[in-house]
What does this fold into?
Amino acid sequence: MKKSTRLALLLPPVAIVGVLAVTLATTATVNAVATRAEAAEITPYGERVPVGDRSMNVVINGDQAETIVLLPGLGTAAPGIDFAPLIDQLDDTYRVVAVEPFGTGLSDQTDEPRTAANIAREVHTALEYLGVDRYALMGHSISGIYALTYVEAYRDEVTAFVGIDSSVPDQPGGDEPIATDSLALLDTLGLTRALRALAPDAYEGLPYGANEREQMRLLTNANSAAPTMLDEMAHASTNFSDASGRRFPADLPVLLFVREADDDVEGWVDLHRAQAASVDRGEVVPMAGEHYLHHTFSREIAEGTRWFLEASRSGTLLNPRLRSSGDSGCRVA
It folds into this structure.
């Protein structure tokens, strides 16, 4: 083969690699510059409270006697804003405290390992500072796992647990590791930002204003692959493993709003029915929605929560708008 022919065959791969390298260098630079610029566009909200040598952001709405504490799912970049539709439905009846654990929303980053025990302790420290000492715990997704540790440590403060498509011990796939190294690399190279820019707005058509959607976009870019969030993802499999076989105390009222058609986890609703059956007063409400049920069913969740908490206090029957579905379940009528 002639030398010129060999060079011709080699040039296309070399050119492709070169173009790819230039492209990645460009997206990485754009990402770094945009991240710094966007930091100035983030609007403060809520209030920051001291937790150790760092600050945790909390959003408080309503001034009622009873309190509900909201805890987010893994990967929720701006919990205080994400929970806004649900807060709007609850704060006429309750004081609602939406906690943004370290690494989310406007809370600081932290070097403390993201174990369930550390997260529970930090959240409790923030609540203690605020004088919040009696409340129902309402958690989305993986907060169902953290809540087991939290209730075990602070049972005398928690009046009930309300799950929003909450994770449960021993759910299939829960103990599988998350590829955090790949996520970090994609973010550093700017590819995650580029993919988000091409994707449709996940909050479009939901009950959020334009400013709320923009702030969530900015905080998603800032937090979703930051060190604390990545560390929480890295600890997820261990946190699930540590929760294996664990239950809430039998005397804790437990209400579980659950996505009824979850193709990702086998037996999803049945797993929640089993968890509800493990306590003296447990109920399951299947809903025809997506994982973030509070985005589209905030009114129903708030209404069901009010009836459940009142019934748990008084020992009365369930909300008549919920019809029984076996010993441990009910369904939105």
Notes: The CA atoms of residues 28 and 189 lie 4 Å apart. Residues 3-39 form the longest helix (37 residues). Confidence is low (pLDDT under 50) at residues 319-333. DSSP finds eleven helices and ten strands in the chain.
